[in-house]
Each structure stands twice: as C-alpha cells, then as structure tokens.
Amino acid sequence: MxxxxxxxxxxxxxxxxxxxxxxxxxxxxxxxxxxxxxVKTGALVPVQVxxxxxxxxxxxxxxxxxxxxxxxxxxxxIPLKEKVNAILVGKISEEELKGIVDNINNLEGVKVADLxxxxxxxxxxxxxxxxxxxxxxGLLEDKIHKIGVEHRLLVITET
Amino acid sequence: MRISIVGFGAVGQGVAxxxxxxxxxxxxxxxxxxxxxxxxxxxxxxxxxxxxxxQKLIKVKTEKGSVAYYPDHGHExxxxxxxxDEVEYDCLVEVTPTNIIxxxxxxxxxxxxxxxxxxxxxSNKGHLSLFYKELVGLAKEHDVNFKFEASVGGAMxxxxxxxETLPSSRIxxxxxxxxxxTNFILSRMTAEGSSYEQTLKxxxxxxxxxxxxxxxxxxxxxxCKSVILANAVLGRECTLDDVEVTGITKITPEAIExxxxxxxxIKLIAEISHEILRVGPRLVKDTSPYAVDxxxxxxxxxxxxxxxITVIGKGAGSLETASAILTDIINIWKSKH
Lengths: 159, 337
Fold this sequence. Notes:
- The complex is a heterodimer.
- Chain A has helices at 15-25, 55-67, 94-105, 137-151, and strands at residues 2-10, 29-35, 44-52, 71-75, 78-79, 81-90, 110-119, 124-133, 154-158.
- By secondary structure, chain A is an alpha+beta fold.
- Chain A folds into 2 domains: 2-79, Alpha-Beta Plaits, CATH 3.30.70; 81-157, ACT domain (Alpha-Beta Plaits), CATH 3.30.70.260.
- The radius of gyration of chain A is 19 Å and the shape is elongated.
- Chain B is α/β, with parallel strands linked by helices.
- Chain B has 12 helices and 13 strands.
- Chain B has a 7-stranded mixed β-sheet with strand order 4-3-2-1-5-6-7, with helices on both faces. Chain B has a 6-stranded mixed β-sheet with strand order 9-11-10-8-12-13.
- The radius of gyration of chain B is 20 Å and the shape is globular.
- At the A-B interface, strand 6, strand 7, strand 8 and strand 9 of A face helix 11, strand 10 and strand 11 of B.
- Strand 9 (154-158) of chain A pairs parallel with strand 11 (277-285) of chain B, so a sheet runs across the interface.
C-alpha cells in the first residue's frame, strides 16, 4: 500500500535526509518527494513524501518519524490534528464559559475536546483541551489571548 | 588593570571576593593584575591609587555599613560621580541597584565613564532596558568597551555566548526562564501544591524574594532582561515599554494541578524573537528543557545553522553574578593585550 505524508521540516541543509532516514531504515519504499519551498512559513518548509510498504512497515515509519521529532502535518490528504492545552484563571460565570467554548469552536479547524474546571473561593481555573489543524494553531493562539483580555482572565498557553 | 567599583552591595562584594580568589590564576594565565583603586556606595567611598585590599573592603562594609569607613582611605559622603574624578582608573564596574523608572544612578555614572574614555562593565538592567541604544551608541562613539553579561541570567552565559561563540549563526529567537525568584516560587507551588501567597512568604524568609517582590513577580525583571537580549542578540531596537508582560501573582494551585495532570509545568517564560517580545506564564512539558526547577535560569536559542542550543545556570547570587562581571573584565583585558 501507498501512503502520502506531508512533513514539516526546518529549511536547513541535511533536514530532508534526516527525515528520510527513519523511513528507509524500516524498509519502506520512498516513491516521490516534493519539496514545497515556495509555501515556506518562517523557517519551515512542507515536504510531501509518498511511501510504499505493508501496513506494519508504514506504521513503523510513522512511529520512527514521530520519535525523531519530525512533525507530520498531513496524512493521505487529511490534516492531522494536534492537541493544544490552555489554562484560564479568573472570575467566570457558566454563561461566559459557554460563550468561550462556542467562540473557540467557531474557529475553522478547531474543536474543544475537553474541559476541566476547578473552583476556589476567589477564582475559577479552567483547562481547555482543543484539537486543531496544524495551520489553525496561530489563529487559535491569538483567539485565546483575545478571550483572556475580553473576560479579564489570566491565560496560560503552551510554549 | 585599575577598576572602580560603584555599588558595594551583594554583587559589588562578590566582585571583590572573586578578584581576590582568582588573582594568582589571572596573573599566571593572562598576566592580568586587577587593582580596585576605588569602591563606592551610597554613603561614600574608599580610594587608594595602588589598590584597596578586597578583604578589608568587605570587612568594613559588613561591620560598619559602608566602604567610606575604610581605614585611612575612606571618604564619607563622597558622591559616586565625584569618585570617578578623584582617581585614575581603566574600567568602571557599575553595580548599583536597578532602577527601571530613570535608570539612575547607573546611567549618569556610565555616561561619565564612557565620555571620559573608560571601559565599562555592568550588571545593572535598569538603564540598559530604558536607554540601550543611547548607551551602546555612546560607547561606540568614544571607542570604549561596554559589557553587560551579568545583567542577564547571572552566571549563565548568554550575551557573550550568542555574540562571540555563535557568530556563524543567525539567532531566530530566545525562549527561556530569566528570573530565579519566580522560578523558585512556581517550582515550590508545583512540588507542594501550596498557594502563591504562602510560597512567596517562604521565598522571602529564605531571602530568595525581596521584601518588595513586585519587580520579580510582576515579570518586570524578566522583561528588562528580554529587552537587553532583544537589543544585544537579535539587533532589535526596543525598550521596556515594548514588552508584553504578565506576572505570576494570579496563578492558582488549581492551575498548577490541572497542568500537572497532562505532564505540564507552569513557568514564567520570556519569548524574544524578531516579531515577539513577551513575558508571561506558559505551559511547558515536564520533559522539555524548560522544566528546570529552583532558582535556576535557562534559555534556548533557536538558530539557523546550529539548530537549538540550551544554556542553564545560576541566575543570581553574589559570586555567580560576579563571575560574569569578571569574565567581561578579563575579555576586555584580552582584547587589548
């Protein structure tokens, strides 16, 4: 079987070879490589790689890539979602919380997957776990900070 | 090399101690003999052309409260600016307290020394985060050395490291923990589940947090350091007003607990890039380089050629900060000999 992956690599010499090495090492066949230098975002370049092998080999290739810290942003044309956490602290009503969740869900490619709430006498602490497509991450970060300003909450996001 | 130390608190005394303990090695290795020809604090000064005794300086400061009572060479009520006219020296070591409103008295002292053609080493963040461009420009104009490694990260090498050890690489960003006091408080809250107020009190009792902890806990100290790094390492022109700052005072034990459930710690993180300049609490993976505890500082430099490089070290402390000052002094000496 064949599988098409889009990897996100640093635009630095040697990165592509380093990304292909784990694929080759598990015995998967590399069919095509498209280096999309013209869609570079910052120092990162998406590289489309089509690989071939049996299911176990392909799964192993993905595992190896992930272990090496190589980011896979798309698999067979479907954007892979990433889990993103944020913690909000402050005085917040149930109504407001509902509004915030709707606000996040309205962003394209983003969905609230989980909410944890802890109350104390002075303030509430909320952990929001979201699933976001790779190219929505920047938008999501901005949105969360805007929500913080709007509702006067301390916002703690991931680095 | 004749130095004048202005400011004789923990850092100034650390410099005196470090000079004393390294004198043999510096002479042997670099043929460098450092003479403290003047030391000044807010109450006066001690001046001796052929060098003051570092040990005596510390003793007199500890026992009597000021270097002005140094036997035979003390000058009560002598103003620090005047001291710079009273004695021949090569390098000013400016270690007066940080002032983030006016940058004084450090700014005037440094300006005078530079205009008099002297080299300057400082650990002070105030004037640098307010008037970086002006001061560095002045030093260039007068063709003197102006070094400030100790102003960021204490003993942790970062400014010289980025400028001198990594000249091949363009630095894209620096992300790190630049304040030891808040890192201590957050680490303790994470380990003990204690409240912010309770932990701050503990830090104050241990002498890690100051009686007025505002500059640390509101993120201003880390913001000053971020400004210095943005200017010195990334070549950005910015001042303290340009930093987006959030402190740690609103962090609840519940927030720390919720973060921990998913393998995160909450840290006060400074982010400096060509687009971003901010300090605020962030979630960091407990397996990441950002998960350093206690009063330690750390910084990850993202570069184009060398990839990511992380440095970790003691961000404060008398001798630790003095080590960075002494490094600057030695480097100035080496550049000339």
